[in-house]
Design goal:
heterodimer, A: 233 residues, two-stranded parallel ribbon, 4 strands, globular, B: 101 residues, SH3 type barrels, five-stranded antiparallel sheet, 3 helices, 34% strand
């Protein structure tokens, strides 16, 4: 079922990454004659859904549906994507007009060309200009172009960001240090369905002649979400 | 297959069905404009329950912030784009209030 690949069907609680910390049955069982520090915050009792997640994982392994190695490898791959992948795509779009056109027309093909395939969701690249500033959110859960930007930051998944950026985007952007003049249209993209969004920030002034590699260092994660602009050189 | 085209005005169904619905409450009953046809996709209201049905056309629809939030304090040009399935959209002409505004 293709729909099972979509972020919004499993709602991104990050349970896979934490479950050993949360597993109440996971004892270290050592006894080596010194007092241990008090329990850390992640020694808390697991929630209902965390226990459910652990039980599901154990059943899938017991029934031979997945192996622990496959699970580990999938988590490692998921966590190895980083904003550097998105940054090299933006830098190429800044320096290669034909690539920029391809990225705006068919983003999945354009990012695959750069060795960062997005196979389970559709990507739309939206470009900032002197007239329009784009910013992305998923008000319903936490849809995010993970293949290009890595795991979403905690604030992106927070109720405060998700509720406020569609309601008072300029106030939220100002809290991130991004003040926009009133004649710039602030365009919020709420990722409600099968599309993921990538913001192409404006190329900073004074970067003429810089190589794509050097330009990529100016493209921050937050500028590709749209809460910031690209860094000055 | 929806006959909606880029540039068409639409009104989002003002309805509150139970289940896995991907149309946020804040746009239900609101008027927007189709800005991009996104293709056809399985309906999340069915696939969330492992049910099958016809593919639905998906559209990016742009809303004026001042239409969504009567007390919106930013400029009139600010907008929100959402991706909405055809069965949530009713064709609508430009409304008289637009000319008056």
């Amino acid at each position: 079922m293709s729909g099972g690949d979509h972020d919004h069907h499993h709602h991104d609680h990050d349970h896979c990454e934490d479950d050993h910390c949360d597993d109440p049955t996971h004892h270290h069982g050592h006894d080596h004659g010194h007092a241990h520090a008090p329990p850390q915050p992640d020694d808390r009792v697991s929630s209902y859904h965390q226990i459910l997640g652990i039980a599901l994982k154990e059943l899938l392994i017991e029934k031979g549906v997945v192996t622990p190695e496959e699970l580990r490898a999938a988590i490692e791959k998921r966590e190895s994507a980083s904003p550097a992948d998105g940054a090299k795509i933006v830098a190429r779009a800044w320096t290669d007009p034909d690539y920029r056109r391809r990225l705006l027309k068919d983003a999945n093909a354009a990012v695959a060309e750069m060795g960062v395939p997005m196979t389970t969701t559709h990507l739309v690249a939206v470009e900032n200009s002197p007239a329009v500033h784009n910013v992305i959110v998923c008000t319903l859960c936490s849809c995010y172009p993970r293949e290009l930007l890595g795991l979403p930051p905690a604030w992106y998944k927070s109720r405060a960001y998700r509720a406020r950026v569609v309601r008072e985007p300029r106030a939220v952007l100002a809290e991130f240090g991004t003040k926009l003049p009133p004649d710039v249209e602030v365009r919020v993209h709420d990722s409600t369905a099968d599309m993921r969004y990538l913001v192409i920030p404006r190329r900073p002034a004074g970067t003429e002649g810089m190589s794509a590699d050097d330009l990529a260092a100016l493209v921050s994660r937050d500028s590709m979400i749209g809460v910031a602009t690209a860094k000055a050189p | 297959m929806s006959a909606l085209r880029t540039g068409d005005y639409v009104i989002v169904r003002d309805d509150f069905p139970p289940g896995h619905v991907r149309t946020p409450v804040y746009v239900r009953g609101k008027r927007g404009r189709v800005v991009r046809k996104l293709g056809e996709f399985q309906n999340p209201e069915l696939i969330a329950y492992r049910l099958e049905g016809p593919a639905k056309a998906l559209f990016a629809v742009r809303f004026a912030q001042t239409d969504l939030w009567p007390d919106y304090r930013g400029p009139r040009g600010d907008t929100v784009d959402l991706d909405l399935y055809e069965h949530w959209l009713t064709p609508a002409g430009p409304e008289p209030e637009e000319q008056q505004a």
